[in-house]
């Protein structure tokens, strides 16, 4: 719209000028070289305009001819650049789709057309990686590490390659250098923190977490949690040698994460040694409300050394009320009641846990109660021990598929911080026939029974081996066996699933020994014998 208005305005201005020149006629005299030329003003202006156009045209031709080589070179470079960018795009697509041959071909074309640019080096390294050429990948990453713009990216690639060949020292050096050059790089900070945790340098790991939190690389809640875990790990390592330092670290960890069970356990245990029972109880109760845990119950019941069994029962009742009678609280209360010789109360406490499938700890606790009241050789105790061998698992510390009885600050599989979670691990199902055939339940029950008895009690006698099965009776004659099977004809015996063999008429040959049959897993279809006419 504006362009049309401008064009109309210029056209109107030109028309006005032409009209003005027509209304004011004049002559132009040109005297040059003995010639005297006289013309009107309109013709003179037209001649000047035509001369300007001719000069401009000649100038354009001359400059075009002079700049032709540069123009051809520029167009060639532009064409090579477009081809290189196209090869780069196709190479990235090939890398993403996992085509090593196409990726290497396009990477070579991109490097030939574009030169050693950052993207071409990256494509070359990734093509070498998916092709399995680690040496070529490292060379490309080293070339990237030599350039200021791609130094951190090259260090990342060298770090990954060092991890793949399990060279942790070299990988750590690359991560430290990357963290120094770019403090906000997440992978370098995480690698440095994992290295500090592997070395047990909890203070350096805490500084790394605080630096990441100050740069805004992690959430404040996650930073508080990780600091609490690192302080707990430091307190765990200092508990035996420097209890005062461990107490201070554990209290800081509890302040940052009151629901962190290991921190509360260490703080409660150390405060109990100082006779600061009120503060210890407060910390343990707060952690128990969040996560009922057997270690918390154990420390809480034994806060004051030398207490009577009735006092421990009262503390167990407090834990049960705080957790609304959680199953863990029932186990703690049942153990305290059994130690106080209140066996009926212990059974009543565990009764709600016996309706469904009781866990291993519930079965063992019932076995302890029966053994403490009726003796280790009582039938009820052995029955509960046998049930414990097949009972579902109890919660445990689980991290990256690793099940541990004790908490650890990092995962033993991946080195990840704060990886352990208190939960029920997945159960491993075994074939019942295999266990019955090998006598595993009896051996496991005997082992559990011996481990669950109080100190000083005589160990139960090992279970007697099962009596050998009676010898199989000698096989009946062929005719008798054939008659015993309905629909079969004399002279043929069923020797397997759907197989037949001619019967031997002689009955004086010794009977062949019975071949033991392998246990069949549950759910396996069994083919019935077929009668062959």
UniProtKB/TrEMBL annotation:
Localization terms from the record: Membrane
InterPro entries referenced in this protein's UniProt entry, alphabetically: HemY_N, Mms48, TPR-like_helical_dom_sf
A Gene Ontology term for the protein's cellular component: membrane
HemY N-terminal domain span: 26-132
Biased segments, Low complexity type: 495-515
Lineage: superkingdom: Bacteria
Pro residues composition bias: residue spans: 460-477
Protein name in the entry: HemY protein
């Amino acid at each position: 719209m504006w362009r049309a208005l401008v064009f109309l305005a210029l056209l109107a201005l030109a028309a006005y000028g032409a009209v003005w020149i027509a209304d004011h006629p004049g002559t132009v005299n040109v005297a040059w070289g003995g010639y005297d030329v006289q013309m009107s003003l309109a013709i003179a202006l037209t001649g000047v305009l035509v001369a300007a156009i001719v000069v401009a045209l000649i100038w354009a031709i001359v400059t075009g001819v002079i700049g032709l080589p540069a123009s051809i070179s520029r167009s060639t470079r532009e064409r090579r650049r477009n081809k290189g960018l196209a090869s780069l795009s196709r190479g990235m697509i090939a890398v993403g789709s996992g085509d090593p041959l196409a990726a290497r071909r396009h990477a070579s074309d991109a490097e030939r057309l574009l030169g050693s640019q950052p993207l071409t080096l990256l494509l070359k390294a990734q093509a070498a990686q998916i092709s399995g050429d680690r040496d070529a990948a490292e060379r490309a990453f080293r070339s990237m590490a030599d350039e200021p713009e791609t130094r951190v990216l090259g260090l990342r690639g060298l770090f990954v390659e060092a991890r793949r060949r399990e060279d942790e020292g070299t990988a750590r050096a690359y991560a430290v250098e990357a963290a120094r050059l770019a403090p906000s790089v997440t992978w370098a900070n995480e690698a440095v923190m994992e290295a500090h945790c592997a070395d047990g340098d909890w203070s350096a790991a805490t500084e790394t977490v605080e630096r990441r939190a100050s740069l805004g690389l992690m959430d404040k809640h996650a930073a508080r949690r990780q600091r609490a875990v690192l302080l707990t790990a430091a307190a765990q390592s200092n508990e035996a040698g420097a209890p005062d330092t461990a107490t201070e670290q554990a209290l800081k960890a509890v302040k940052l994460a009151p629901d962190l069970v290991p921190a509360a356990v260490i703080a409660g245990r150390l405060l109990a040694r100082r006779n600061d029972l009120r503060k210890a109880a407060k910390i343990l109760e707060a952690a128990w409300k969040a996560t009922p845990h057997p270690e918390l119950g154990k420390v809480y019941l034994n806060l004051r050394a030398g207490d009577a069994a009735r006092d421990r029962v009262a503390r167990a009742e407090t834990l049960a009320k705080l957790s609304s009678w959680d199953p863990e609280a029932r186990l703690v209360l049942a153990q305290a009641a059994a130690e106080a010789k209140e066996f009926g109360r212990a059974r009543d406490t565990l009764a709600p846990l016996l309706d469904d499938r009781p866990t291993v700890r519930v079965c063992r606790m019932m076995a302890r109660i029966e053994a403490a009241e009726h003796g280790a050789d009582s039938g009820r105790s052995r029955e509960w021990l046998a049930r414990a061998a097949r009972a579902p698992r109890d919660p445990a510390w689980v991290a990256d598929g690793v099940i541990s009885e004790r908490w650890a600050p990092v995962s033993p599989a991946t080195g990840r911080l704060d990886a352990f979670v208190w939960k029920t691990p997945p159960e491993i199902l075994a074939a019942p026939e295999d266990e019955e055939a090998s006598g595993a339940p009896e051996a496991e029950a005997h082992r559990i029974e011996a481990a669950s008895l109080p100190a000083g009690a005589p160990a139960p006698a090992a279970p007697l081996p099962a009596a050998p099965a009676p010898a199989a009776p000698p096989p009946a004659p062929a005719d008798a066996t054939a008659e015993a099977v309905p629909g079969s004809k004399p002279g043929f015996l069923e020797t397997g699933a759907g197989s037949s063999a001619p019967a031997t008429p002689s009955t004086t040959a010794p009977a062949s020994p019975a071949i033991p049959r392998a246990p069949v897993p549950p759910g396996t279809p069994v083919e019935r014998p077929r009668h062959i006419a």
